[in-house]
From TrEMBL:
HAMAP family: Phosphoketolase. One of its GO terms (molecular function) is aldehyde-lyase activity. One of its GO terms (biological process) is carbohydrate metabolic process. This is Probable phosphoketolase. Residues 18-379 form the Xylulose 5-phosphate/Fructose 6-phosphate phosphoketolase N-terminal domain.
Length: 808
């Protein structure tokens, strides 16, 4: 049903008196007028003179089709907020309804408060119109520049997950979440309906989903608008909702029907919460939460026809219903009639300010949806209460020894972070929290779960704080909504599958970049990723689980918002994690292994090393402060081990070879300080890697990224990087390294090949290294495990009688 005519509603009633009905309709008409004006006009905002070509923008950009429905909902939510003193934010999935949200913020006064130049008068209205989708102005969709928004509207699929993320641990908040019927066709949105199985009515807020069925996408009908209503309602009930339908196009009847339906839904939400919060039961039964299905015409209240073709109620109204109002007199006449149909003379005074009937139909202060502090989460953000990460230190008597699961150590630290912040910190993971060795957090909280539980289930509870659902999209959306409303969190994921949220990361990174330039936006807690089960240790999964390329994707974003860390051991990981959890306005990517691995630095040394982000490990090198013959660099836990093992081999073969060993924790230190805030100066970089000596670099990910970060460096021509090159399978840890030639034997041969003075004397050494590779291959395929000397390898100081000091 794409163009409803007769008004129908699941809930009957006419709760609006004549005055209230008139005022709501006036607000709606005013918001619609302002929305059309933003799309089309750059002058003559109140039509006080005949509409001329120069009043119309030369390029028309924007989306009208969804906007009137969004304005309709905004007006009714304002009425409910005022009547009930609700704490409400508005999340809209149809993000290109941006002109409506800007119009509402202007009508409420918030827009003029944060942008004083856009005054609430005729001149301010002209500027409001001129800036929309215009060079030097604002985007056409709901963006960070829009007061009241936490949801970037450029990409579809995340409205519900963002809304639920905002509601978690916000018991008094109601999130009105509009799902467009085009958005409803996306995979992320389809999964996010299940978020209600993770909501606790006792301590969380409420989400009121509103499925806005206007029938069309850009050029095609939408699926949910064209299936039988019985089928649609069965689908929504299956998701755990009680759906209420409001359908029609007559404004007066639709206002009454929607007001009655909204009141009914808010009463249900109140009753659900009161019952849950008054119950003595430890857990609250999951209720069927209410939701609304709003059927209204695409481009509602717009032109019925243009050039003999239907507009309202068709796909043609999705964007700009007619595009030549500047050069086509007939189209300009249609625009003039359209704008005047809203009767602007009744809505705006002589000075252009909204008349009292419009200006007063919104709540006061922070209760305005465009000014709600939850939509500017930095206003509410409080520092985490943090235990001292040094208390979780792993003892390292001799570097390069031991067998510690670094992320398990981190899990112990996170357990106590969680215990100290039980209303403002959550862990998020797609069913992998324990697999990623963070299970110690289960000592203080359960996995969040508000569906059926069985006796053998492991740590499930509605009051749990570990958010796990097998949808990276939904997990990411929850976390983003949680962060943007002023809380903290961490997302752990298998490294290969974090790519599922590549585009969501894009949107969040862009949000942070833009908000850094908006003075009234306050900093929010950083988006922290822990990537583990990484490319080098997929012993039982294989090629499908091997991809370190998320790092490459991340470093494409603006340097001011992204950080990448590759701690080589548990103590360094603890230091890095503490820093990331305390940080603001960044995306922090931490890559760390979960398998038993060697440990290198004491806690004091790890703090220094992580703070510097890069440094020489004197105990691992053989240059002893002299000019080196070669520099061996590394970033990542397995590359660090293989690089150290290569140094040990070279030390035995060539006792007089001077090797400098450099380890990188903060990947962006490799870039120039001119390109990234963490970048090294050329002088500092040259002091580590020299100006003219060969550099053999073992890197966790794709090798070309290191070249990209360092291509302007003096010694780049001598930089030789080994990393992952798309060779993998189900095999042993060391065989993975061999397949990609990042193993100790290949690294050692690479050094031999790059140091000229070794060429004449290296024949025996090269032969021995090649023989080891053959021996390895035969052994692995015969026994299914690495050679004992590989499995049991640990660092040995040059003089066993005098263990090396692991100091930096």
């Amino acid at each position: 049903m794409s163009r409803p005519d007769r008004t129908t509603s699941t809930i009957s009633g006419r709760p609006l008196g004549k005055t209230e009905l008139r005022r709501i309709d006036a607000w709606w008409r005013a918001a619609n007028y302002l929305s059309v004006g933003q799309i089309y006009l750059m002058g003559n905002p109140l039509l006080r003179e005949p509409l001329a070509p120069e009043h119309v923008k030369p390029r028309l950009l924007g989306h009208w089709g969804t906007t009137p429905g969004l304005n309709f909902l905004y007006a009714h939510l304002n009425r409910a907020i005022m009547a009930r003193d609700l704490d409400t934010i508005y999340v809209i999935g149809p993000g290109h309804g941006g002109p409506g949200l800007v119009a509402s913020a202007w009508l409420e006064g918030t827009y003029s408060e944060v942008y004083p130049d856009i005054t609430r008068d005729a001149d301010g209205m002209r500027k409001l119109f001129h800036q929309f989708s215009f060079p030097g102005g604002i985007p056409s969709h709901v963006a960070p520049e829009t007061p009241g928004s936490i949801h970037e509207g450029g990409e579809l699929g995340y409205a519900l997950s963002h809304a639920y993320g905002a509601a978690f641990d916000n018991p008094d908040l109601v999130v009105a979440a509009v799902v467009g019927d085009g958005e409803a066709e996306t995979g992320p949105l389809a999964t996010s309906w299940h978020s209600n199985k993770f909501l606790d009515p006792r301590r969380d807020g409420a989400v009121l989903p509103i499925l806005h069925l206007n029938g069309y996408k850009i050029a095609n009908p939408t699926v949910l608008a064209r299936i039988p209503e019985s089928e649609l309602l069965s689908l929504l009930r299956g998701y755990g909702h009680t759906p209420y339908v409001v359908s029609g196009s007559d404004p007066a009847e639709m206002h009454q029907a929607f007001a009655a339906t909204l009141d009914h839904c808010l009463d249900e939400i109140r009753d659900i919460q009161q019952e849950a919060r008054g119950s003595r039961r430890k857990t609250a039964a999951r209720p069927p939460w209410p939701m609304i299905v709003l059927r209204s015409p695409k481009g509602w209240t717009g032109p019925k026809e243009v050039d003999g073709k239907r507009m309202e109620g068709s796909w043609r109204s999705h964007q700009v219903p007619f595009a030549d109002a500047r050069g086509n007199d007939a189209h300009r006449a249609v625009l003039d009639g359209w704008l005047r149909s809203y009767k602007p003379e009744e809505l705006f005074g002589a000075d252009g300010a909204p008349v009292p009937d419009v200006a007063e139909l919104h709540p006061a202060g922070d209760r305005r949806m465009s000014a709600n502090p939850h939509a500017n989460g930095g206003l509410l953000l409080r520092d985490l209460r943090m235990p001292d990460f040094r208390d979780y230190a792993v003892e390292v008597a001799v570097p390069g020894t031991g067998a510690v699961e670094s992320t398990r150590v981190l899990g112990t630290f996170l357990r106590d972070v969680m215990a100290a912040n039980m209303t403002s910190f959550r862990l998020f993971s797609p069913d992998e929290n324990s697999s990623n060795r963070l299970q110690d957090v289960l000592e203080v909280t359960d996995r969040t779960w508000n569906a059926e539980t069985l006796p053998d289930d492991d740590h499930l509870g509605v009051d749990g704080r570990i958010m796990e659902i097998l949808s990276e999209h939904t997990v990411e959306g929850w976390l983003e909504g949680y962060l943007l409303t002023g809380r903290h969190g961490l997302f752990s994921c298998y490294e290969a599958f974090i790519h599922v949220v590549d585009s969501m990361f894009n949107q969040h990174a862009k949000w942070l970049k833009v908000t850094n330039g908006i003075p009234w936006r306050r900093p929010v807690a950083s988006l922290n990723y822990l990537l583990t089960s990484h490319v080098w240790r997929q012993d039982h999964n294989g090629f499908s689980h091997q991809d370190p390329g998320f790092i490459d994707h991340v470093v494409n974003k603006k340097a001011g918002v992204i950080r990448v860390y590759l701690p080589a051991d548990a103590n360094t990981l603890l230091s890095v994690a503490d820093h990331c959890l305390r940080s603001r306005q960044y995306v922090n990517v931490i890559v760390a292994g979960k398998q038993p691995a060697l440990q290198y630095l004491t806690m004091d040394q790890a703090v220094v090393h992580a703070t510097k982000g890069i440094g020489i490990w004197d105990w691992a090198g053989t240059d002893h402060g002299q000019e080196p013959d070669v520099v061996v660099g590394c970033a990542g836990d397995v590359p660090t081990m293989e690089a150290l093992a290569a140094v040990a081999l070279l030390r035995d073969f060539f006792p007089d070879l001077r090797i400098r060993f450099v380890n990188v924790v903060d990947l962006m230190r490799l870039q120039s300080e001119r390109e990234h805030p963490h970048g090294l100066s050329d002088a500092d970089f040259d002091s580590l890697f020299t100006k003219d000596k060969p550099v053999i670099f073992a890197y966790h990910g794709y090798p070309w990224l290191i070249h990209r970060l360092t291509y302007k460096r003096t010694n780049h021509r001598n930089l030789h990087v080994r990393g992952y090159k798309e060779e993998g399978t189900t095999t042993t840890p060391f065989d993975m390294a061999v397949m990609n030639q990042i193993d100790r034997f290949n690294l050692a041969m690479d050094v031999i090949d790059r140091v000229d003075r070794l060429q004449a004397t290296s024949g025996s050494a090269r032969e021995a290294l090649k023989n080891k590779l053959i021996e390895h291959r035969i052994h692995v395929r015969a026994h299914g495990e690495d050679l004992p000397e590989i499995r049991e390898w640990q660092w040995q100081p040059a003089d066993p009688a005098d263990p090396a000091d692991p100091a930096e």
